[in-house]
Structures are given as C-alpha cells and as structure tokens.
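Today's session is about reading a structure prediction critically. Students often jump straight to the picture, but the first step is always the sequence itself: look for stretches that repeat, for charged clusters, for runs of hydrophobic residues. Only then move on to the predicted structure, which in these notes is written as discrete structure tokens rather than atom positions. Here is the chain we will use throughout the hour.
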Amino acid sequence: MKAAEDFGPWLARQLKNARKSQTDLAEELGMTRAAVSAWIVGRSVPRDETIRRIAEVLKTDLETIHTRSTDAQAGLPISWYHRPAHADGGREYGNAAAFAFEADVSVLAREATQNSLDARLDPSEPVRVRHTLHELTGEALARFREAIDWERLLPHYEALTADSGKQGKVSRTIAAGLRDMYQHDRLVLLRVDDYNATGLTGGDYDNGLFAAVVRRQLDSHKNDVGAGGSYGLGKATLWATSRLGLVLINSTLSEPHEGRTERRLIGRLDLPWREVDGREFAGPAWFGRPDPDARSTDVARSWWADEETVEKLHLTRDSAAPGTSFLIVGAHDVASLASGAGTVDEEENTDDDSVHRVHARLVDALGRNFWAAMTGGGGQKPHLEASVRTYRNGEVLIAEEHVDPAVTQPSRTRALRAYLEGDTVDRLTAPGQVARATVQLNVPLHGGQMRGGVPHEAVLLVTNAEDADGRPNRLVSMRGNHMTVKDSAVGNVPIGTNPFQAILLTGRAAGREAPGAEAAEEFLRASEPPEHNKWGQTEELRLSYSPSAHRRITALTTAANNSVRDLVAVPRAKRRSGGEAKIAGRLKVGGAAKKARPVGAAALPELDNVDALIDETGAWSVTVDLRVPPGVDTDRPLTPIAKFDVRSGPRPAAPWKDLVAVSGCEVGDGALRLVPGSRKAVFRGVTDVSRHPVRAQLTGLVVELRIGKGEQA
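Below is the predicted structure for this chain, in token form.
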C-alpha cells in the first residue's frame, strides 16, 4: 500500500506535535542529529529496527508510521479551544455576519452552492454538490456527542442559557436547540458536500481559502470577477443554520498542505460572550489539535484525521475527489417550521414531516436558483450536479433525489439548452420555440467617469411557459456562474399574450466571446448585495464606478423588458392575414350606426382602432385605441361592452374577465376614466370564456363604448 505522505514531512510534523526537536529524537534513538536530518529532508529512510524505536518514541504503532495516513497521537489530543475574552473588556453577543441572512435552508442551499460553483476545479466537468439530512436519536446521538467531546462543550452552553432574562437572540436560539435535543433525544445534522472543487487549501492562518472560511470574517478570497460571492458573508449561513452554532469540516485538498491532501478536519463553534468557571470567553471556539507553533498551548489548528475518526464525526466522503464537507450540527429551518401545519409549535415539530419538509425545500431551492447551472447542451456539460438525501440513524429515510432542471424549470431549461445548441428563432411562431435577441448594456468605466463605456451584448431568450415553471411572464437574469440573480415580472404585457418565461444572460453567461463580457461581469458583480438577489446601487458600485452607475442597470432592465414584449407580441400583419383575418373581418366597432350629435352636446371620445384575437383559452382578447378630441368631459365614465355578433335577435353579452388600462386612462368598477389632458387612451380586455353563450370561433364580436348609461361613442 502506498503511503499517503512522504516519511520526511510526516516525521517533521510529528516531532513538532510532540514538541520534540531533531536533536531530542536523535538522543532518544542513540543516533546522530545528521541522521535524523537526512530522514527529514528525504536523503535517506530509517531501517525497520529504527522505525520500531521511532514508534515507541512517538507513542504510536508501526501501521501509523508505514501508512502515514494520519498523525501520531502522542502528546496532543484533539480538543476544544475557546478564544479568551478581549483584554479591554469588549464583548460580542453573536457573530454579526450571521444576521445578514435568515436561518433558512433555502438561503443556505443558495449560498453554499454558489461557493461550490466558485471553487469548481475542472471547468470542463460539473461540480457535484450533495445535501444530506441525517437525524440522530438514541444511541447514535450519544455516540456522536462523545465524538465531538460534548462534555467539554456543555458548560459553555449552560453558561449561555442559565439566565433566561439576559438572553439575546443567539442565546435563545441555542436554548431552543438544547431543549429540542434533550427533550426529544433528537439532533438533525445537515451535511453539504462538494466534489471537483478546490477544497480548503492554504495554511491555518495564511491568506488562503482555509483561513478565509474557518478563521476570518468578510474575507471571500475570491479574485475572479466571475465569482458569485464577493462579501465573505455567505459562509456565515452555515453557522446561522445551526441552532447550536456548530459546524464541523472535512476537506480534501486540490493542493497538498504539509504533504497531505485527504481528511483535513477542523470544527468551529460560534457562541456569544460567556463566563465559564470564572473565565471569560470572547465567542468562537475551534475543535482541533493544539498548535505547537502558537503562543498559547491551547490554540487549536486543523489536523489530519484517520478514517475511523471521520466516520464517527459523520464526515466520511464518497471519494478522494477534491472538495469540502460541511456538517451543520443541530440544523434547523425557520421557514419550513413556520410553513408546516400552521398551528404546530416549533418545539413539538419533531416528527417525520419536519425533515421531509426540509428535504423538499432543499430540492426546491436548488432547482429554483441553479437550474441554469445544471443545464448543459451543445457539447457543454452543466456547471453543477445537485442532489438531496435523508437518513435516520444511518438508515435511508428518503432516497437520494437528483435535482433535474428539466423538471423543476422545464421552460427555462428548454430555452437555455436551445441557446447552447444554437436552436433559436427570431420570433415565436409555434409552441416550444425559443426566441433570441440581444440587449445592449453600456458598461461604465472605472474611476467615476460619467461618459463613455464598454458596450456589452447581453442575450435575451423567450419561450412559452409551462405550469411547472411557477409564475409566468417573468424575466430571470444571471451572469457567468449561472445562478439566478434577478427574478422579476415583465409589466405591461398585452392581454391575451401566451404565458412566457424570459432569460437574460449577461457577462460570461452570454459567452466569453460576447463583446464586453468581462467588463459586464465585473460591473454586475459589484452591483449585487450580500444576498446576490438583484442588481442595483451598492457602495462598491458607487466607489468603483460612479454614483450614477446604477442607471446603466436600470437602462438594461428597461431594454430587456421592452425586447421581451416585442418578442411575445403578435405582429399586426399576422392578425390581418390568414386565419386571423377571419376574426378581424367579423369584428364590428360601436354596434349600431352613429347618430348625429346634437348641437352644443359635449364632445365624445372616438374609437380609433381595435385589434382582436381569440387566445388559446378560447376567449376574445381585445386592444382598443381611443382618440380624445378637445372638449371631452374626462369626469364622465366610459363603459366598454363586448357582445357576440349574431345574425338575428339581440346580441348576447360577452362579460369581461380582465379589463386593464394601458395608457391615458384608468380602470375602476368595470368603467374607464380618461386622464385629463390626454389625447389618446388605450385599454385592453379579455372576455370570460366560462360565460360565453357560444364558442368564440363560431361568431364575431362587437365592441361598444358607452358613456354613463346613455350615448354610444
């Protein structure tokens, strides 16, 4: 069996852990320091008899020395290190970064998966993310508490919950977590694993991913302009989701650290200021091996664990592929508890339904936020593969569910795949098609320059919506990491327009070859808040560009919405030809012939143009243009009435299902009121197909415009 690490670096670390020098080892072995130095630098290796004596000195076994898959246990056991209180008396009653987000597994899934995407190692392969819910009870819970040295943690928890009158928000959350665990003998673990990711590389305290996640706040350590995160706050959702403030970490590194790559472990506990046994503690604590290089002998650093330890801590990874596993201890989800039965108390919500709801919310959040990242096509593999599974005491409770974007977001997935495969059209003419257009973004220049910029061509995709997509007539926007950033309604859509979904691809998402892609990526990243759920004014945008730079984003949104409306609108030429011509030919305006208006009578608005079609539901969809001559009394209401044009007898009414003012007027109680001073007014109406006396396809339509209860226009 090949050893996990070269002998020299491994021996050097064991001597450091045991607080022994090379000279100390040489004396205990009865050898020269030069011989030990030769082992350390790799010029030679000790003989078998010497290795047995080294094992005795390090208080370990021969297998540990031969395999070198873990550290020797001599002198430095794994323990908790709690940071002492500040010497100046300052106190923190919680990690402020955790309050930037809700304790919501949907938010956790979004932030953690975004970080995994940013850490993707091989860009030609997807990063694989798995969420595992694991409910522990009884003996399984007892074994886990023993593995994390619970008895040493308990006094710190008890110090926070002893005086309920002085508890802050964090202390109350912890108290609820402890009650749930002890009263119901139950603890929920939520593990987030990623594969084909960089892992937490770098030293324990150096500038690197490990220190950025485990040791520091507001350090994202992401220099790529295409990265999703930029504030260094997203990692706080891991600890915010734990009602005990505890997260354990196992990382497989893409770059060796101390000659090793597998099973680098550390734990971090985030608690408020507390006093335990007469000593004051600042807040955070770390679970690891005492650091021989630290000023204090108690300071804990990461350690290289053996497989048995990893298994006891529920951190065993599926393969040696680089990446990180985060284990959230005491996971909870405020949103799913609140959306349960409505009357179920949080303290009593401990049955199967709670983990089933959390499982479902994780699947929903991954599908809603990362459907684009999970979509491939045109020879391109997706950026992401995601799944969720649920266990109880090691037994499968809910089988692993792979998130399929074609199921969670069928229309949007179809649109993006068509774009990747080059199968788009200029305008929608049949169901299932995907229309493509470009939208211009003028990216401003750095340094507050108000004029000029870098032109960028964003890609707009539009397709018909399906029920599974959720709300129709939406525009979702994203950049290079393919995570949904904005999700907004497209307003002023013509009534009768088929439901649609639209996608705006900006920056690298529009293609690395797209003009201005890199500039747009950097600009839009600077315009995102910590939640990364919109583009707008931010402090970074103001400082890096100019105070008015956000107006370029407003212009992009306006242009995108206009392009969407243009792509989904039925061309007028189409309405006047072919099958549509039959509908237009049956349309009459005003009903009976106009009567001569008496001299001195008030001026009336005039019907200027009427466009109508029968939509896919069988309802009439009508757009009416009114010309408003001078002298029209705008205080008098106008009542539009739709009737079926039958050959004989009275015309049956076609009641409106929707009546909407477009411009120059307002709608209220089924009537229109003209805006004073307007010279043109437009309104739209859709008839109620459930109240049609005959099918719309079998008759024509008459639109009458009445003023009050009398005259017709």
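Discussion point for the tutorial: The mean pLDDT is 83.
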